[in-house]
Specification:
Chain lengths: 450, 236
């Protein structure tokens, strides 16, 4: 390590100590800023001793990273990772600066969730040995423009390291673009017979074949643009899967039970998207030599990870809070609720601040209509953009319904729901406000689970 | 039981051009139509499919991503004559963003690539290299005095041509090009706009106007104005 790097590391680490231990603030971005100022190359120096794996994509990064960390820790003594939300360069620098390793392993692993737009910069400095790609859906287009632009940003990072392994969700056709020379590991779903022939529904993005831009057909679809696709104009099709979900045994809002490569696993959270997250974690584990037995063990202890879907008791009601941020994710949440065997109610909350995405038009691509065939007994809307959501739900066929402009009324809203089970689906800042309210009234401990 | 009146809708390239909830326009149309016992069915017309201009009572042509728009532009050439016939026979059509651009002469993508439209109408679209018009828009329809609200998100700058008038005068936001104070277009029964929101969901008065136009064209013997008088338009 050069003197400059050593100094940068020292300054970064000590500012972390001051912020974290003395001022008791979470601050992971300031140490990074200070250290990078002294030595812009400090990250490269720090990362040299790690095997770096970057996880990126639109949805599921955080959960995939958390679950993969658990899986890898079964086998490797030193796996460092970044806290959720710290997935841009500054946050990652902070993570690397303050990481503690036991020194037991000769190559510690840095498993890092990276924001799609930051992949190139992070990769350039950290020189990863593998990239994990989860999916690309439409998300906050006011930020990035379009899904192909998002993927191009990721590709730029991967192209810097043609020897790095690309571990990709093969069910997502966009990842077959770009003709990468890298070694590849593919995961996906093989739970249904490959004999159907269907096209994606009208509001799906990214369904063009990478060979000739015709609309892809699918033998079966899981959700969004994902599934077992093939071209009708040439021989392009989904590649062979290295690791696959081979059977779905049971899906409920509380847990999912499924087979990967013929062995049964269970995760204590609903939603098909979470099975994808688990499959990604499994794949990275197998890629690095973790045994299926160890993966079983890691999955068995997964209940605590899924803080985002914990049930909160509010005056005797079982309230489940879920984050919604784009149509694919929201439709998955809807599908998850539909697997509930108990009657339930839904309170949907919409804000349109920067962190939520300032364009609310995505609510029209969200299939509220499909809840008519479920156990849903009542629906209410609210949040800063309550008018948009109110009309959306009204036009979905639910007519006039309760609307809560002010989240101070949230407990009242919950109380008034006719069922014991209540789901609250909220955009990011609406969720923060909601949790602050529930915390203030003593139903949960902190504003946001850490 | 089948309804007495049915509107057949074509959603042009709905699998490739529906990036910002444009389908909501059909949801709104159906919502109002159902209040007067009219069914609205939807057919997706995509790459390689024929567009039969005699068959439809309303056409939605939504916006897409740059990449998809180039693919659609190639295919659209084969539907151009039928679309022209539909428009010239006063067929109601809503074109949003890319769908609106492609009906004109051409548009330039952010990087300057020129994509040919089908020139069934006389507008054209230039680009902005490093910025987009993003934000809330409020316009006033100078013919009927109605105000329309929406959200715009586009890099294209559209300039209207012969026989086209803007849908409204910009009171807030950028509109077609940020220069001439117009937003969207009206030509016969074609409505073009950069509004997402989508426009019919947030502006019930416009949705009702287009719905009535479509019904009067298909069922001229019925007094639709009277039937629709009690519908309350949503606006937000
Ligand atoms: Zn647009």
């Amino acid at each position: 390590m050069s003197l400059k790097s050593a100094l940068a590391t020292f300054v970064g680490k000590s500012s972390y100590v001051v912020l974290h231990d003395i001022l008791r603030r979470g601050g992971t971005s300031l140490p990074g800023k200070l250290a990078t100022k002294i030595d812009p190359e400090v990250m490269t120096t720090l990362a040299e001793k790690y095997d770096v794996i970057l996880i990126t994509g639109t949805n599921g990064k955080t959960l995939t990273t958390t679950l993969t960390t658990r899986v890898l820790r079964e086998q490797f003594p030193d796996v460092i990772t970044n806290p959720s939300g710290s997935n841009m360069m500054q946050g990652i620098t902070g993570t690397m600066l303050t990481a503690k390793v036991t020194g037991k392993s000769h190559r510690p692993i840095a498993l890092l969730e990276v924001d799609e737009a930051n992949v190139e910069e992070v990769a350039r400095q950290l020189k990863p040995m593998a990239f994990v790609l989860t999916n690309i859906f439409r998300d906050q287009l006011d930020r990035f423009g379009e899904i192909y632009t998002t993927y191009d940003k990721i590709l730029k990072g991967i192209r810097l390291f043609p020897e790095a392994t690309v571990i990709a969700n093969a069910d997502s056709p966009i990842f077959m673009r770009g003709d990468l020379p890298n070694p590849k590991v593919y995961y996906g779903f093989n739970h249904l017979p490959a004999d159907g022939d269907m096209k994606a529904p009208h509001n799906t993005d990214g369904v063009l074949s990478p060979t000739d831009d015709t609309v892809l057909h699918y033998h079966f679809m899981t959700f969004g643009n994902q599934g077992d696709y093939f071209s009708v104009s040439d021989d392009f099709k989904r590649p062979e899967l290295d690791y696959a979900v081979t059977k779905i045994n049971e899906m409920t809002p509380r847990y999912s039970n499924f087979d990967i490569d013929g062995e049964t696993y269970q995760i204590e959270i609903g939603g098909m998207y979470n099975i994808y997250n688990a499959l990604a974690a499994y794949t990275v584990g197998r890629f690095l030599g973790v045994t299926t037995q160890q993966i079983h063990h890691a999955f068995e202890s997964n209940a605590q990870i899924f803080g985002r879907q914990e049930a909160v008791n509010v005056n005797g009601k079982e309230v489940t809070i879920v984050l919604i941020k784009n149509p694919v994710g929201a439709n998955q949440v809807i599908d998850m609720m539909k697997t509930d065997d108990q009657p339930f109610s839904l309170i949907a909350l919409l804000n349109a601040n920067y962190a939520d995405g300032i364009d609310t038009s995505w609510i029209w691509d969200t299939d509220f209509e499909s809840l008519k065939d479920s156990g849903m007994q009542a629906i209410a809307t609210g949040g800063e953009r309550y008018k948009d959501l109110y009309v959306r739900v009204k036009m979905a066929g639910y007519g006039e319904h309760p609307v809560y402009q002010d989240l101070k009324q949230i407990v009242k809203a919950i109380d008034e729901m006719p069922t014991k089970r209540v789901y609250i689906a909220a955009t990011y800042t609406a969720m923060l406000q909601l949790r602050a309210q529930l915390a203030q009234q003593g139903f949960i401990k902190t504003g946001m689970g850490e | 039981m089948a309804a007495e009146y049915v509107l057949h809708t074509a959603h042009l390239y709905g699998d490739l051009m529906n990036t910002y909830g444009d389908y909501g326009n059909i949801v709104a149309m159906r919502f109002y139509a159902s209040q007067i016992g009219v069914d609205v069915d939807v057919e997706l017309i995509s790459l390689g499919d024929e567009f039969d201009d005699k068959k439809y009572d309303f056409v939605l042509f939504g916006g897409g991503q740059d990449y998809e728009e180039q693919i659609v532009a190639e295919d659209l050439k084969f539907k151009a004559d039928a679309i022209k016939r539909y428009i010239e026979s006063d067929g109601p059509l809503l074109g949003v963003c890319g769908g609106f651009q492609l009906l004109g002469h051409y548009f330039l993508m952010a990087d300057g690539t020129r994509v040919e439209g089908i020139s069934v109408m006389d507008h054209y679209t230039l680009n902005q290299q490093h910025s987009r018009f993003i934000g809330n828009v409020l316009i006033k329809d100078e013919v009927n005095g109605n105000e329309y609200r929406g959200f715009e998100n586009h890099q294209g700058r559209t300039f209207l041509g012969e026989g086209e008038r803007p849908l409204g005068k910009v009171l807030q936001g950028k509109g077609n090009n940020g220069e001439d104070g117009g937003e969207g277009l009206v030509y016969r029964n074609v409505y073009g706009t950069y509004f997402h929101g989508p426009i019919f969901t947030r502006n019930g008065n416009l949705a009702l106007h287009v719905l009535q136009t479509a019904l009067e064209r298909k069922y001229p013997e019925v007094n639709w104005a009277e039937k629709m008088a009690d519908i309350k338009p949503e606006a937000f």
